[in-house]
Amino acid sequence: MPESRDVVPEPEWDDEEDTLPVAVNRRDVRIRVMQTLYAGAIGELAGGTDMNTLFTHILSEYLENRSDLLEFGRDLLRRAWNNRETCDDLIMKLAENWDFNRITPIDKAVLRMGITELLYFPDIPTRVTINEAIEIAKTFSTDKSGVFINGMLDAAVAMLTKDERLKKSGRGLIEE
Fold this sequence. Notes:
This protein is mostly helical. It has helices at 26-45, 51-59, 67-82, 84-94, 105-120, 126-140, 145-162.
């Protein structure tokens, strides 16, 4: 039997319906945003997608009683989806030895979400963004995705800092 620190609690699923558990924190919201970005990207490959429908079914229905989390999720999803070309350009620059099309769609969604937080959420510390992305990748993607996401986002922070595009402000947000 694994030690208690190795056990991840199972989410509370509704056996009556095939629904996601209700979100209770920002990680839950990030997971839903990643799933929505993934579904949107797959939908694009299949000939079309309706992000509003995806947003409603994957994200907003589970956050209707948590306006703070709904606002964060809506902003993160909107910015990640609308700026995916900017995120993808950065991913391609950072993944010099990787064919962009061979990066798993889930890893792309996690990277797009992480880069969006780095660029457009000045109040979220870089370490929080990176740690959340790593944990989500480890849960939903391949065995090596956590290491890959960590390396890519660390490199993104370095590149964005060098290019003076990383705008973090506030107490505890500027790494010294």
